[in-house]
Amino acid sequence: MTTREGHVPAPADALSTADKAQIISDARRSRARATLRFRITSLLTWIALIGALAASLSGSFDSEFVQTWMPFILGGVEITVIVSAASVFLAVILAGLGALGRLSTHATIYAASTLYVSLVRGTPLLVQIIFVYLALPEIIPAVARVPTIYLGIVALAFNYGAYMTEIFRAGIEAVPRGQREAAEALGMPESLVMRRIVMPQAVRIVIPAIGNEFIAMIKDSSLVSVIAVQELLWRAQRAGAQSFNTFEALAVAALVYWILTLIFSIIQDRLEKRMARGDRR
Amino acid sequence: MTTGEAIVRVEGLHKYFGDNHVLQGVDLEVARREAVMLIGRSGSGKTTLLRCINFLEEPTRGTIEVDGVRVEADPLGRRGRRHREEIRQIRLRAGMLFQEFNLFPHMSVLQNCIEAPTKVKGLKRDEAVELAERFLAKVDLMDKRDEYPSRLSGGQKQRAAIARALCMEPQVLMFDEPTSALDPELIGEVLKVMEDLAHEGTTMIVVTHEMEFAREAADRVVFMEDGQIVEQGPPEHMLNDPSDERTKQFLGRFLATGGAGPD
Predict the structure, then answer these.
(1) Which DSSP symbol is given to B238?
(2) Does any CB of chain B come closer than 8 Å to the CB of residue A276?
(3) How far, in Å, CA of B198 to CA of B178, rounded?
(4) Confidence of residue B262 (pLDDT cuts 50, 70, 90)
(5) How many CB atoms sit inside 10 A of residue A188's CB?
(6) Over 50: is that where the pLDDT of B259 sits?
(7) Rounded CA gap, B66 and B7, in Å?
(8) Chain B partners of A179 at a C-beta cutoff of 8 Å?
(9) Among B29, B15, B151, B119, which residue's Cα sits nearest to residue A192?
(10) pLDDT tens by residue, A178-219
(11) Which of A34, A36, A260, A267 is the most buried (most CB within 10 A)?
(12) DSSP 8-state secondary structure symbol assigned to residue A10
């Protein structure tokens, strides 16, 4: 039932309709003005703070370095984004399997996926990355010939897959029970219920979280610099060491990471808004 | 109303939820073309009975038979895969409608209707669409064919759910309080569809609090209390002049309050 708020019969001495409309529109306008003022002030504050920071550092900032090394450092952006995207993609697959395992009634499958999650979450990501790079080749010599970028992606995906397993599990469990029951009542076998009814709805629930994971991954992907994947941080460190401008190099890298996460946050925001609209189709 | 052989047979049905003995030995037969309405207080076991018939709840003891498929309770899940397949056979024969409609929100009304016929019964898409359009016309929703559920009113949702169930061409339709989640002004359109179905000879079992509807559409009214069937009979007898003291009390209170609370 639709209820109209504030729909109260007017007393005899009430304001005229025109007066009321005037009051309401005045209030709305002043609220809009206050919001705008707040936004402008906070934007100006940002600019002032960043300007002050830049000014105080510019004295020690070697601008020649930027000219010489910028293309090299920025070349790492592509690798950072590729590594992040590939890792999140693989992690999504691992997480899907992990979540099904966590919800499985088969003890073996459940145990395997629980162990995976526990093991990965209980050890540092940095250890996992170095392990894949240094320890794995000792057991499986062929790994030594794999380009490090793939090893980095595998390690990151393996790690994020475990964290995202929990996200996916929550997503599947967030699909109302009635959905499953309705599908079962139509005679659908379990696998079909999962594939056609539960999963598509779970994915919608989980997509915003995947966006967050991707943004986190952009930052965490810097860890694979330790195994010489030539991404943003690795290049910045290399440039800094070669030109003795470590400060400039790392400041640039940090700035680029920041810009990257800002860009992807904005994209994610847009996507979410569009999806929310899609839901109301 | 003509009645034929029994299409649903419930024998010695017991259901425990933990220590709670919700169904205490229920026997019920529903004949082909018969419309049976289950009435009774909240917690009397009506809904559980319905959910046990298509095994959305696994009975603790007893036997269910729907259109010749006979399945015994398997509360400990000993019979595994075979049991699950038998249950699926029952579900193909017994359609179910829910209080909360449970349409699939990521599919249009038409997709909701053809999903199971194509994926489960193996119908070709155009056959399924033809069938779906026939039933959508029947529930007066052809114009909403391509809408998503979120764009429908509650009454339209429930009617779409009825069309979806009909598309599987079940032997019996089971309704679990189909109008309890609806705004009062939307109840009528759903009851109208159900009444038409009943008059056309659709076999149905309906858990309801709508006594006027039961009077109009039921061939038989079954009153349950404390997990047992207390009394049953034709609606005129059951609603006007019940014999059992508990039925009288229930109906008396019902008429006094003018409607039952949510189950």
Answers:
(1) I
(2) no
(3) 14
(4) very low
(5) 23
(6) no
(7) 6
(8) 102, 104
(9) B119
(10) 999 999 999 999 899 999 999 999 988 898 899 999 999 999
(11) A260
(12) P
Rg for chain B, CA atoms, rounded? 18
Instruction: Say how far apart CA B110 and CA B124 lie, in whole Å.
Output: 14
Q: A182 and chain B: CB distance < 8 Å anywhere?
A: yes
C-alpha–C-alpha distance, residues A15 and B152, integer Å: 39
**Nearest-CA distance from B132 to chain A in Å?**
14
User: Mean pLDDT, chain A, as a whole number?
Assistant: 89
Q: How far apart are CA A194 and CA A187, in angstroms?
A: 13
Average pLDDT (B138-157) is 95
Phi, psi of B120 (to 5 degrees): -105, -45
Could you count the other beta carbons within 10 Å of the beta carbon of residue B63? Answer: 15
The reply to whether A1 touches chain B by the CB within 8 Å rule is yes
Residue range B99-136, pLDDT digits in tens: 999 999 999 999 999 999 999 999 999 999 999 999 99
Give the residue among A161, A155, A156, A153 at the shortest CA–CA distance from A101: A161
**Chain B: which residues have CB within 8 Å of chain A?**
54, 56, 84, 88-89, 91-92, 95-96, 98, 100, 102-106, 115-116, 119-121, 148, 150-151, 161, 164-165, 168, 183, 185
Strand order in the sheet with B35-39: B94-97, B172-176, B204-207, B35-39, B220-225, B228-233
- Residue B100 tokens read as 């909360």
Under DSSP, the state recorded for A226 is G
**What pLDDT sits at residue A35?**
93
Six token digits for residue B119: 């994926």
Query: Which 3 state secondary structure label does DSSP give B150?
Result: helix
The answer, yes or no, to whether residue B205 has pLDDT greater than 80, is: yes
Q: Give the CA angle between residues B183, B187, B190 to the nearest 5°.
A: 135
Residue B79 pLDDT exceeds 80: no
pLDDT band (50, 70, 90) for residue A1: very low
Evaluate if residue A163 carries a pLDDT over 60.
Answer: yes
Calculate how close chain B gets to A104, using CA atoms only, in Å. Answer: 15
